[in-house]
Specification:
five-stranded mixed sheet, 4 helices, alpha/beta, Nucleotidyltransferase, domain 5, 5 strands, 147 residues
Length: 147
């Protein structure tokens, strides 16, 4: 059965959101949501969940390369628990090491008209836009390829 998934790149200031599915293993960036104020954050996430009707949510968990938690790791884990509680969907936490680096590489390839790494966004991207949604797409793609 094909599942639709939403991926999240959690950050203190912004949360990137991407969509993907298990049939193609592909993902694409959707949007970036401000982390504060909380009411606006949850309303924006609820709208995305309502629009895409995912069967599963995937959250990138930030860690050091040796696996040790970063200062933001507990907040990210709390965000994942809140997603599960609010939407009643299974939430998977996955390693997000280097997702932003890979997203920046893909963005540079998209700006240059080439393809750096895996498929990037289907629209032109500018250097000034937040990278969070592309990082969420990388996290989701890594999750899908590991299944």
């Amino acid at each position: 059965m094909t599942e639709t998934l939403l991926g999240f790149d959690f950050g203190i200031r912004r949360i990137g959101i991407a969509v993907g599915n298990t049939l193609t293993g592909a993902s694409r960036p959707l949007c970036v949501v401000a982390s504060e104020p909380l009411a606006a954050r949850w309303a924006a996430i609820a709208a995305v969940v309502a629009e895409w009707q995912p069967q599963r949510l995937v959250v990138g968990r930030p860690r050091h390369p040796d696996g040790a938690p970063l200062p933001v790791t507990p907040q990210c884990e709390r965000f994942a628990r809140q997603l599960e509680g609010r939407f009643g969907l299974p939430v998977e936490l996955v390693d997000e090491n280097f997702s932003s680096v890979e997203a920046r590489s893909e963005r540079a390839g998209a700006r240059e008209g080439g393809k750096a790494g895996a498929p990037g966004p289907s629209r032109r991207v500018s250097a000034g836009e937040p990278i969070d949604a592309e990082a969420a797409a990388v996290i989701l793609r890594q999750y899908l390829s590991s299944r």
